């Protein structure tokens, strides 16, 4: 396999890891106003992702670093053209991380309410804007001959991209609520399961519209295969949740996110940044990539370290596999 093709799909894998793992973190954060009936409920929800959210978030750093090293032209165009959207994502992630650490530092309800609001916003903004960004990448944006983005932030907020953003927002929300039902017990678990059933129906409709629009406009053979896989997994996850099989539902929703992200990369390939104004200005895996020597070195580094990262991630989830209960939260408060 050509190294440029290999690294295109390695970058895709990195973003799959990020959206699958940090996606349910976003969903749990957004669920606080719907599932957190009191302070104990909110602490239970936050504690379900407390041991893993920062590890999940590091996937975006690895994905960005891989993008920078393997496709520097793509990285430069993306981060310069989308810098306002990416800045908003970064500020939201900072606000969310700060809130996780600071909300318990003082006992006042107003203090906790303020940081809970920051968690919700810090989860919803990235969930929306990542979808907007990737939809724009697939659709193409105006680029000049030097591959510089010539549009504005408002050009990125077009109907197709906004539909992509709403799709990721709803998908991550449902993914996170299912995770909450998997990691909690009692009444909170049942509320999460019912909420996932309602949000899942809306997600199925919106995601179907987005994938259909993408397929009709930019679809390839492999896009349709992956899009159908995502649709089947999403419906299967919804049905499993209705039966109370949270583990199966969560696994199928993870497959949904993975297949959906891969389908967008399949629709994009072999371009990495299509130019909507002039195809000659498009960035491809060929004119955006690093040298063969750089990609070769990176490949050996990935062979050594990627399995170690995956093993550590798996071990972390195994250690923190138990459900979080109200009793454990109340006992820790004394």
UniProtKB/TrEMBL annotation:
GO molecular function, one term: metal ion binding
Protein name (record): Cytochrome d ubiquinol oxidase subunit II
Species the sequence originates in: Agromyces fucosus
Lineage, opening ranks: Bacteria, Bacillati, Actinomycetota, Actinomycetes, Micrococcales
Localisation per UniProt entry: Cell membrane
Gene Ontology CC: cytochrome complex; plasma membrane
UniProt keyword list: Cell membrane, Electron transport, Heme, Iron, Membrane, Metal-binding, Transmembrane, Transmembrane helix, Transport
GO annotation terms (biological process): aerobic electron transport chain
Transmembrane segments: 6-32, 74-94, 114-139, 159-183, 195-215, 221-240, 247-269, 297-320
